């Protein structure tokens, strides 16, 4: 017995309704026009190679005198944190009294393939920290890392603890070998040296293909079915397209950085073991003694919550706080619910420290 | 939809809407006349007459066989060639597609793919609902999908070349996307495997002109043959290796495809189990959308389990690694050619870039170190001002001025004064030896600083030299 009892005319009418909505909706889609990305006004503070350091402008004076630097993942574009008026983590942080800076890593090309994690973290990131500290006449700033950027921030905080006042990690993998980590499971049998030696930079399409395959039925099909109902609302459609643009806007990843990140972090889980070697430093998370706020998503399909929670066991900080959000890896920046709770909570936590 | 720039769309939409209205009205009439209860027998089902599904190995929908099907291989998990609903989506898309370009075009494409599979599912359900025993019909539908998947797997297993039809549904999308990606990384992947086996066995392609070859093979031959030089032993080995690696890639891709076929089977089983559970719990599915969502959940779950298996880890890694070996061989071959033509190669450029990056890194370190050292020196200097000053204070104050004397002499006679320095001294009003000889030490120090002479005035003893010259 099958629990599906629709009459032919009911099926027909639903199919017909859907077909019409789809055609009209895609018609509307074709007229969406330019999709602007990033809505909060910002100014360029520093540039180096393809990197740009931005400072976001706020309507009110920042109440927190310690500036906050956001470090995004290399595989993405940063406008996810500033998607639209009512869905911007950055706007939320500004409203919570923070003075917000952000590093845009740009799109590396073939000439950037020898950029190492040392170059990114002890080079680019460190110089951005120096620039901000010099502007404000301070020694330490607040650092907020997202996803891979979170892993970078952890490394940075361990190598340069004297420059980090408070550390916030968002959906950041720490233990790469939890049993539910799909990406990690997949890459164990991939010859990373062969891949990087042959390919140089890792194409964004390849990374994207991998991410979509984490949940192909939802991400490549069902998601679009859900949107069909919203497609007669031009505003909703535009918002959808913004997300869509972001998801498929994946820069290539510098070969040498990819090599170390996948081999040391994903394949050998060295961050947990305190064995990651970056430039002249060995990354020891016990040296991360400043206050740490670890924010993760309970339904994260990319960075399982346990991968983030593992930080508690290895971090040196005595002031360690977890903030979990009932949502997914991306929902944590864009869902309305997340917008109401996450940025104010981060702001509040920072203001107290 | 009213702007002039978009009038194509408006016209398109109107035409399409009119056709579609007619089409669906016809269907609704059918449904009404057949007595909507759905239990009135398959004769009432307009698809019933379309013949046996066994004729088409990919007909996963036994209720609809459209003899006019344009695409005999179908393309989604729910439906097949006979597609009265999804055909509408196709029709609409074929008129829409030329306009759909760039970013928006690829998003529209994803909507189309989804719409098509959703409509195919609706077709299956519609067909089943019109049968005398809808439950049995549903079972039959599922079994036919299962049979089609099994057949697909068998086909991939036995088919040496890549002309296997696309795997239906999302698994198919995954495989297609991979195939596209692989093609952009390495051409020649579509080359005949018979031909590759030949090359791997040492039968190398002859000249550039190879009549009777497929496009991929011909391109391959052109790329391999170096005019006027023939094959060196080393090059022969390279080519044979490339052929072997291409074959390995096909093997790995086949294993990957079969793994995906098995996942699709597991998904189907998972759907059936859920249906059973729902039935036992007395739950009902009351819309196509609800059925689709359940289908996706069940499939995703089965997929999730499969891709976390050791088997998947192996086939996934093998796929990526084997593609990279092909690509590496191609890079090597290309470099051989470039070297012959005296064109810089990628590895040479890589070497330059790696060194340059190392140098940039070192420069940064040095620059930082210099800044730090400079700061230290300044600090040291500031820490000892009292110790440094008394000595100077002990000296006599500088003279107010030197004797005014307009006589001009050649100051370069003094060791340490070149023509440039002489110019500078003239600029300070010092034009002769008498003026130089009249300076006291403090004045000399101040002058030294003004001229940026770096201590030369006292070190080279210009005063003493001038006195000597004056005799």
Question: What would you say this structure looks like, in words?
Answer:
The complex is a heterodimer of chains A (353) and B (471). Chain A starts with 7 loop residues before the first helix and ends with a helix. Chain A is an alpha/beta fold and 353 residues long. In chain A, helix 2 (89-95) crosses helix 15 (336-351), helix 3 (117-136) packs across helix 4 (148-159) and helix 6 (192-199) runs antiparallel to helix 10 (255-267). Chain A contains 15 helices and 10 strands. Chain B has 471 residues and is mostly helical. Helix content of chain B is 66%, strand content 0%. Chain B contains 17 helices and no strands. In chain B, helix 3 (102-129) crosses helix 4 (134-158) and helix 4 (134-158) runs antiparallel to helix 8 (233-280). The longest helix of chain B has 48 residues, at 233-280. Chain B is elongated and about 135 Å long. Residues 1-6 and 35-81 of chain B have low confidence and may be disordered. Classes of the chains: A alpha/beta (353), B mainly alpha (471). At the A-B interface, helix 1, helix 3, helix 5, helix 6 and helix 7 of A face helix 1, helix 2, helix 3, helix 4 and helix 5 of B.
- Span from first to last CA of chain A? 62 Å
Number of helices of chain B: 17
Instruction: Output the structural class of chain B.
Output: mainly alpha
What shape does the CA trace of chain A take? globular
- Characterize the main sheet of chain A: 8 strands, mixed
Q: In percent, how much strand structure appears in the residues of chain B?
A: under 5%
**What is the overall silhouette of chain B?**
elongated
- Oligomer state of the chains in this structure: heterodimer
Number of beta-strand segments of chain A: 10
């Amino acid at each position: 017995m099958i629990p599906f009892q629709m009459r032919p005319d009911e099926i027909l009418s639903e199919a017909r309704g859907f077909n019409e909505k789809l055609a009209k909706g895609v018609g509307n889609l074709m007229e969406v026009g330019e999709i602007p990305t990033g809505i909060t006004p910002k100014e360029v503070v520093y540039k180096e190679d393809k990197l740009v350091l931005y400072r976001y402008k706020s309507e009110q004076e920042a109440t927190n005198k310690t500036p906050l630097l956001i470090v995004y993942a290399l595989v993405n574009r940063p406008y996810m944190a500033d998607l639209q008026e009512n869905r911007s983590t950055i706007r939320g942080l500004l409203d919570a009294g923070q003075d917000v800076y952000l590093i845009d890593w740009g799109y590396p090309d073939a000439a950037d393939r020898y950029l190492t994690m040392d170059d990114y973290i002890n080079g680019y990131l460190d110089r951005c920290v120096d620039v901000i500290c010099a502007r404000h006449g301070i020694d330490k700033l607040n650092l907020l890392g997202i996803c891979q950027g979170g892993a970078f921030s952890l490394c940075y905080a361990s190598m340069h603890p004297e420059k980090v006042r408070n550390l916030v990690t968002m959906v950041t993998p720490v233990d790469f070998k939890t049993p539910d980590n799909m990406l990690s499971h997949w890459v164990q049998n991939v010859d990373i040296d062969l891949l990087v030696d042959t390919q140089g930079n890792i194409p964004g399409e390849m990374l994207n293909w991998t991410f979509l395959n984490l949940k192909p039925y939802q991400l490549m099909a069902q998601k679009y079915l859900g949107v069909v109902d919203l497609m007669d609302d031009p505003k909703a459609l535009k918002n959808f397209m913004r997300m869509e643009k972001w998801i498929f806007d994946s820069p290539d990843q510098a070969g040498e950085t990819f090599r170390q990140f996948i081999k040391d972090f994903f394949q050998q889980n060295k961050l947990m073991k305190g064995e990651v070697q970056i430039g002249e430093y060995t990354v020891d998370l016990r040296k991360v003694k400043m206050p740490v706020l670890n924010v993760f998503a309970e339904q994260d399909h990319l960075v399982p919550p346990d991968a983030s929670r593992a930080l508690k066991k290895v971090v040196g900080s005595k002031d360690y706080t977890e903030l979990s959000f009932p949502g997914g890896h991306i929902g944590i920046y864009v869902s309305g619910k997340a917008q109401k709770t996450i940025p104010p909570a981060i702001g509040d936590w920072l203001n107290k420290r | 939809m009213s702007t002039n720039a978009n009038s194509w769309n408006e016209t398109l939409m109107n035409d399409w809407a009119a056709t579609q209205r007619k089409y669906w009205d016809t269907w609704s009439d059918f449904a009404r006349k057949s007595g909507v209860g759905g239990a009135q027998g398959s004769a009432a089902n307009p698809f019933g007459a379309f013949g046996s599904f066994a004729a088409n190995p990919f007909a996963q929908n036994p209720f609809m066989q459209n003899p006019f099907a344009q695409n005999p291989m179908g393309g989604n998990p729910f439906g097949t060639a006979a597609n009265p609903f999804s055909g509408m989506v196709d029709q609409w898309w074929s008129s829409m597609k030329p306009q759909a370009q760039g970013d928006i075009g690829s998003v529209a494409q994803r909507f189309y793919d989804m719409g098509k599979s959703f409509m195919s599912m609706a077709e299956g359900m519609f067909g089943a609902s019109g049968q005398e025993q809808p439950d049995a019909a549903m079972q039959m539908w599922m079994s036919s999908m299962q049979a089609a998947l099994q057949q697909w797997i068998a086909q991939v297993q036995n088919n040496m070349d890549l002309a296997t039809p696309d795997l239906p549904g999302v698994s198919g999308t995954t495989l297609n996307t991979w195939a596209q990606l692989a093609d952009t990384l390495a051409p020649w992947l579509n080359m005949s495997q018979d031909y590759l086996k030949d090359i791997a066995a040492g039968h190398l392609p002859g000249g550039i002109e190879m009549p009777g070859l497929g496009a991929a093979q011909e391109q391959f031959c052109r790329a391999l043959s170096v005019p006027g030089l023939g094959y060196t032993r080393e090059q022969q080995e390279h080519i044979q290796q490339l052929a072997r690696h291409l074959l390995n890639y096909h093997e790995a891709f086949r294993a990957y495809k079969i793994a995906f076929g098995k996942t699709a089977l597991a998904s189907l089983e998972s759907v059936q189990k859920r249906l059973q559970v729902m039935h036992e719990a007395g739950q009902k599915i009351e819309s196509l959308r609800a059925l689709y969502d359940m289908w996706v959940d069940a499939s995703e779950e089965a997929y999730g389990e499969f891709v976390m298996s050791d088997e998947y880890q192996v086939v996934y890694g093998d796929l990526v690694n084997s593609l990279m070996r092909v690509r590496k061989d191609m890079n090597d071959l290309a470099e051989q050619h470039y070297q012959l033509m005296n064109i810089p190669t990628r590895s040479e450029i890589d070497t330059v870039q790696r060194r340059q990056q190392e140098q940039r890194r070192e420069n940064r370190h040095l620059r930082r170190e210099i800044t730090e050292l400079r700061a230290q020196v300044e600090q040291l200097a500031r820490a000892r001002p009292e110790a440094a000053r008394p000595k100077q204070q002990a000296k006599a104050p500088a003279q107010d001025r030197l004797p005014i004397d307009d006589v001009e002499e050649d100051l370069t006679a003094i060791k340490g004064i070149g023509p440039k320095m002489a110019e500078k001294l003239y600029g300070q009003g010092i034009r002769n030896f008498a003026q130089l000889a009249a300076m006291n030490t403090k004045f000399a120090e101040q002058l030294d600083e003004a001229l940026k002479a770096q201590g030369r005035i006292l070190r080279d003893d210009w005063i003493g030299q001038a006195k000597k010259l004056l005799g």
